Amino acid sequence: MAITAAVSACGDSPDSRGTRWLISAPTAGGKTEAAFFPVLSQLLAAQHSGLSVLYMCPIKALLNNLEPRLSGYAALVGRTVGLWHGDISDSRKAQMRRAPPVCC
After folding, report:
1. Per-residue pLDDT tens digits of the chain, which is 104 residues long
2. Rounded CA gap, 92 and 94, in Å?
């Protein structure tokens, strides 16, 4: 996959060197993984706790679609993901305020 090769060639996660990445690929081309895996790696290396990552999307439907996948990846390394937008109930938002996920 081209995205995997591009991420491998760059080495460290984008922000660890003070650089920015623009990831471009067709639909289902691995952009989410290319962006999220280095972030998870950095979370593990730095032993972050509490809300440490804010992953923003332009539309709710995309967040709803990505959340199960991101939650699965985060669970593999003992982290949690929370989903927050206008359709999330007040009680769920209150629960996340009391016990924040690592990624939201």
Report:
1. 344 444 444 444 555 556 666 777 788 888 888 888 888 888 888 877 778 888 888 889 988 999 999 999 999 888 889 999 989 999 999 999 998 888 87
2. 5
